[in-house]
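Exercise 7b. Backbone tokens:
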């Protein structure tokens, strides 16, 4: 009898101990942070992209944590500076997956960086939301890959709609040799005929070039050119803009959404006056009518970012806001951070009002935006204005 009682007491003691350990361990497990991995071009030639992207992620991770986190868990941002290098992007993506054990990767400031890591995230079965613009990122669809910016093809199409409305049908292209530049050039050449646009001159430059006078002189001397479209991003488009004015070219100059920040205007100076481009609505948020579904989101982000960092917003930071919020929204809908379930929830996103537009994703569309996500902007008096 005593032996039986002793054995029962021992079992009760084990059970009590296990319960106590569960009480101790339970909250610890619940408090494990949700790890947001990122690699961005914070320094280098594409820093105008990566810097506002990183700042946006930092600002809103802190803001979400201050509001209690997601599913009762705090977010932890683990970010690396890939400096625009595809090789560094691969290294950091592998580290985020294998060592940091992140729940999602939000990043890839450039197309080159993004394309370099896609095989890694697909093999690892981890949601990846890219912040780069080329259409090849999501076309064809890759199971674990999504993106937030509008595509280069859409930029071509929206620009051609504007040109056609102005009866500009014979144009010249000039573009760089980077991943985004090459992709946008190819997309513009592919869709031009759909809008009755003829590309009668086609020039390229290197990303290290400091003068594009030779290419622009050829364009100037091409009979019949009615407008010029520069498919590029970073410092080169500003050089193109200055050389354009120096040569006295008078036909309209269009740029890509890869220059949609005040930095481009600053680098181009007075030469940017009159330049047009298709871009997201963030740069003209305050000019949007109150009935616009994006206005409240855009104005709030613009105010929060500029108040916190004392600097102007750029559309690129908006890409990061969309990436983070799409993930957070998916986690809430899935009720878990399980990667497969979150991936499914991202893919099922519908009617999500973001910075880049209203997202409606599907199994055949991992971006979820249409041409309404682009507005035509024009630089007047050294600032962005909405073309009515």
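Sequence design result:
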């Amino acid at each position: 009898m005593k032996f039986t009682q002793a054995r029962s007491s021992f079992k009760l003691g084990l059970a009590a101990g296990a319960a106590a350990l569960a009480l101790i361990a339970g909250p610890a497990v619940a408090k494990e942070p949700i790890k947001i991995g990122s690699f961005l071009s914070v320094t280098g030639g594409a820093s105008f992209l990566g810097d506002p992207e990183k700042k946006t992620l930092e600002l809103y991770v802190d803001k979400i944590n201050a509001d209690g986190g997601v599913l009762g868990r705090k977010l932890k941002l683990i970010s690396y500076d890939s400096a625009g290098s595809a090789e560094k992007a691969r290294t950091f993506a592998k580290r985020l997956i294998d060592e940091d054990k992140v729940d999602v990767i939000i990043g890839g400031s450039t197309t080159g960086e993004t394309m370099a890591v896609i095989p890694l995230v697909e093999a690892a079965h981890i949601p990846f939301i890219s912040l780069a613009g080329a259409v090849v990122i999501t076309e064809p669809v890759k199971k674990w890959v999504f993106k937030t910016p509008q595509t280069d093809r859409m930029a071509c199409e929206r620009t051609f709609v504007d040109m056609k409305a102005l009866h500009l049908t014979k144009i010249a292209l000039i573009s760089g040799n980077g991943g985004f530049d090459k992709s946008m050039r190819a997309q513009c050449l592919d869709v031009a005929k759909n809008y009755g646009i003829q590309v009668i001159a086609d020039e390229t430059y290197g990303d290290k070039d400091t003068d594009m006078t030779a290419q622009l002189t050829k364009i100037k001397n091409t009979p019949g050119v009615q407008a010029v479209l520069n498919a590029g991003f970073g410092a080169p488009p500003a050089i193109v803009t200055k050389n354009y004015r120096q040569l006295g070219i008078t036909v309209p100059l269009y740029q890509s959404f890869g220059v949609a920040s005040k930095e481009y205007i600053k680098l181009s100076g007075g030469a940017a006056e009159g330049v047009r481009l298709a871009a997201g609505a963030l740069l003209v948020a305050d000019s949007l009518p109150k009935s616009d579904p994006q206005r409240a989101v855009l104005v709030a982000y613009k105010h929060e970012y500029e108040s916190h960092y004392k600097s102007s917003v750029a559309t690129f930071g908006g890409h990061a806001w969309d990436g983070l919020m799409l993930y957070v929204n998916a986690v809430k809908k899935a009720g878990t951070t399980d990667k497969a379930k979150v991936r499914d929830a991202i893919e099922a996103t519908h009617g999500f009002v973001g910075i880049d537009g209203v997202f409606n994703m599907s199994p055949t569309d991992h971006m979820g935006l249409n041409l309404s996500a682009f507005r035509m902007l024009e630089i007047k008096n050294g600032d962005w204005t909405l073309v009515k």
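Instructor comment: The longest helix spans residues 2-30. The chain has two domains: 34-150+313-373, 153-279.
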